[in-house]
């Protein structure tokens, strides 16, 4: 191995460690050096050096001995989202969908094989959920993700499942590939996907894919609500119709604006 290869390897390793520490702070909801070191099984001196550097760069904050992710990440996340065409054209429609249904309305994209909640809007009487912008989830656990997977080539879906697996989040989460592919075929036929407590207990969801002019998925839009509020005809007919209508408007704007 030559000097350049050695140097590149050190740089990559250091970068990986930095982001492992950032994710540890998120998963631990803030922590001290020792707790992060135990969580990652890394030397405390290494963790300390990385945290102090991140603090100096304003990416983490320190309150006595506890470090937390800083608000500077919002600058990067907001910039990345605002530059996305799908967000630009979908945001007003998602707001309108939430107002029309008085429920949670959500916009999701797929990136690196995971579903990312790009934008959420709430009706006046919605319950609180964990679907904040930027939240990453496994695609097969949500109606949004399944709507995206249904219009993704099977080889790519297989790659995603190989990489990320099919973790069971609730007792209703799909964890079998054959069952998933059968449901994806049904989603393509009916034009929308559903999620009955597959990621969040007590919540049902209806989602429709957003595709480009070639039929490739660029995202999905959904409405989610407590299951007692979306039983029967509302879940079978009303919400699928309004969600598909919203997706269609977004598709047209995405193509021609």
Order of helices and strands: HHHEEHHEEEHHHEEEH
Question: Spatial order of the strands in the main sheet?
Answer: 5-4-3-8-7-6
Straight-line N-to-C gap: 51 Å
Radius of gyration using CA atoms only: 21 Å
Number of domains: 2
- Structural class, judged by helices and strands? alpha+beta
Estimate the strand proportion.
15-25%
Q: Give me the number of helical elements.
A: 9
CATH architecture of the largest domain: 2-Layer Sandwich
Query: Are there runs of 5+ residues with pLDDT below 50, and where?
Result: 1-7
Work out the number of β strands: 8
Give the structure's gist in a few sentences.
With 257 residues, the protein is of the alpha+beta class. It has helices at residues 3-28, 33-40, 44-56, 72-82, 85-101, 143-150, 154-164, 177-190, 233-256; strands at 60-63, 66-69, 104-111, 114-121, 136-137, 193-196, 203-211, 217-226.
Can you walk me through this structure?
It is a single chain. The protein is of the alpha+beta class and 257 residues long. It has 2 domains: 3-70, Winged helix-like DNA-binding domain superfamily/Winged helix DNA-binding domain (Arc Repressor Mutant, subunit A, Orthogonal Bundle); 81-256, Beta-Lactamase. It has 9 helices and 8 strands. It has helices at residues 3-28, 33-40, 44-56, 72-82, 85-101, 143-150, 154-164, 177-190, 233-256, and strands spanning 60-63, 66-69, 104-111, 114-121, 136-137, 193-196, 203-211, 217-226. A 6-stranded antiparallel sheet has the order 5-4-3-8-7-6, sandwiched between helices. The protein has a two-stranded antiparallel sheet with strand order 1-2. α2 crosses α3 (44-56), α5 runs antiparallel to α9 (233-256) and α6 (143-150) crosses α8 (177-190). The longest helix is centred in the first third of the chain and has 26 residues, at 3-28. The radius of gyration is 21 Å and the shape is globular. It starts with a helix and ends with a helix. The relative contact order is 0.10.
């Amino acid at each position: 191995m030559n000097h350049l290869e050695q140097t590149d390897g050190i740089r990559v390793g250091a970068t990986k460690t930095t982001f492992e520490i950032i994710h540890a702070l998120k998963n631990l909801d803030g922590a001290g050096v020792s707790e992060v070191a135990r969580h990652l099984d890394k030397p405390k001196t290494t963790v300390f050096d990385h945290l102090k550097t991140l603090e100096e760069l304003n990416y983490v904050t320190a309150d006595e001995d506890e470090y937390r992710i800083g608000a500077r990440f919002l600058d990067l996340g907001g910039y990345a989202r605002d530059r996305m065409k799908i967000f630009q054209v979908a945001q007003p429609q998602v707001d309108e969908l939430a107002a029309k249904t008085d429920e949670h309305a959500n916009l999701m994209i797929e990136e690196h094989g995971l579903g990312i909640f790009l934008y959420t809007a709430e009706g006046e009487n919605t319950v609180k959920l964990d679907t904040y912008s930027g939240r990453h989830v496994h695609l097969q656990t949500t109606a949004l993700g399944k709507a995206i997977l249904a219009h993704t080539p099977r080889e790519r879906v297989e790659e995603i499942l190989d990489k990320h697996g099919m973790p069971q989040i609730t007792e209703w989460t799909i964890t079998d590939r054959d069952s998933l592919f059968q449901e994806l075929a049904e989603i393509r036929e009916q034009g929308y996907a559903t999620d009955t407590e597959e990621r969040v207990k007590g919540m049902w969801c209806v989602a429709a894919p957003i595709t480009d002019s070639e039929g490739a998925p660029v995202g999905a839009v959904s409405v989610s609500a407590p299951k007692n509020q979306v039983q029967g005809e509302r879940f079978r007919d009303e919400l699928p119709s309004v969600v598909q209508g919203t997706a269609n408007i977004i598709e047209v704007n995405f193509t021609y604006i």
